[in-house]
Structures are given as structure tokens and as C-alpha cells.
Amino acid sequence: MTEKRSYDALKLSRQLCFPLYAAARKTVALYTPYLKPLGITYTQYLVFLVLWETDGLSVGELGEKLRLDTGTLTPVLKRMADQGFVSRVRSRGDERVVLVELTKKGWALQETARDIPHRVGACLPFSEEEVKTLYGLLYRVIESL
């Protein structure tokens, strides 16, 4: 007699990955109306956030902070350099290391982008406490994987 196997675990409604994926896509979409006029993508925006905090990081350090591999990050940085937002220079101490530095144009964008977090946050129906809880839970997921 063949054992009847349950396929309940394969239902979309039972997948934690789906609401995370759908929420991430919708969240990124919230940024589009604010980033498009600046001529940047969401991934470029994330690079700016890191560099505005700590300029002059290596490509590897940027990748670590953004949890992106070099193959994904390098074309983003090339486009940002082509747009005049960043410069990529070889480290004097180790020529294998490429440092990414904001240009004047990249720094100037910070003022224009200053209100984006507030505007996007205003679109989400969460209290400050709920945001803190969600933030903590999401980082626990990230760190555990």
C-alpha cells in the first residue's frame, strides 16, 4: 500500500518566502516615484545610503554591507560612475582593491534625497513600535540565513 503524502507544505499560503518576496517588491515599488526623477535605481539608492554614511569603501566592503555579490554590484557601480555620481579608484595600498568614492554630484544628491525615507515611511500603515519590531524580525531572518 502506498503511503499518502501530504502536499500541504507546497501550498503558496504556507510559504514564508512568498510574503517576504511580495512585500519586498511592493516596498521597492514605493521608492520608484521618488528615485526615477533623480535618475537612479533602488539598488543605486542603497549604494548612496552606504556611501553617504561612509564614503570611500572598497567594492567588497560595499557588497558586505548591502549583501550583494561583486557580480551584481560592479555593473551598478559602473553605471553610477558613468552618470558622474561616483569614482572608482584603485587602492594605493593594494591595487587589487577598488575604492568607491562619491563625487560632488553624488554628494549633492543627498540633499535631494533627504525626504525619501519619510515619504516612503508615510505610505506604510505601521506604528513606530511595529516598525521597530518588523525591522528586528527581518534582520533576524537575514542573519539566520
Describe this structure in words.
With about 140 residues, the chain is mainly alpha-helical. Among the domains are: about 40-110, Arc Repressor Mutant, subunit A; about 115-145, no CATH class. Helices cover about 60% and strands about 10% of the residues. It contains seven helices and three strands, in the order ααβααββααα. The chain has helices spanning about 15-35, 40-55, 60-65, 70-80, 105-115, 115-120, 130-145, and strands at about 55-60, 85-90, 100. Strands 1-3-2 form a three-stranded antiparallel sheet. A hairpin with a 7-residue loop joins strand 2 (about 85-90) and strand 3. The protein is globular and about 65 Å long. The model has no long low-confidence stretch (mean pLDDT about 95).
Number of helices: 7
How far the N terminus sits from the C terminus, by CA atoms, comes to 39 Å
Low-confidence stretches: none
- Our Rg estimate from Cα atoms comes to 19 Å
The largest β sheet comes out as: 3 strands, antiparallel
- By CATH, the architecture of the domain at 40-109 is named Orthogonal Bundle
Structural class: mainly alpha
Silhouette: globular
pLDDT average, as an integer?
94
The string of secondary-structure elements, in order, is HHEHHEEHHH
CATH level 3 topology of the domain at 40-109 = Arc Repressor Mutant, subunit A
Strand order in the largest sheet:
1-3-2
The beta-strand count equals 3
Name the CATH homologous superfamily of the domain at 40-109: Winged helix-like DNA-binding domain superfamily/Winged helix DNA-binding domain
- CATH class annotation of the domain at 40-109: Mainly Alpha
Portion in beta strands? 5-15%
What is the percent of helical residues? Answer: 55-70%
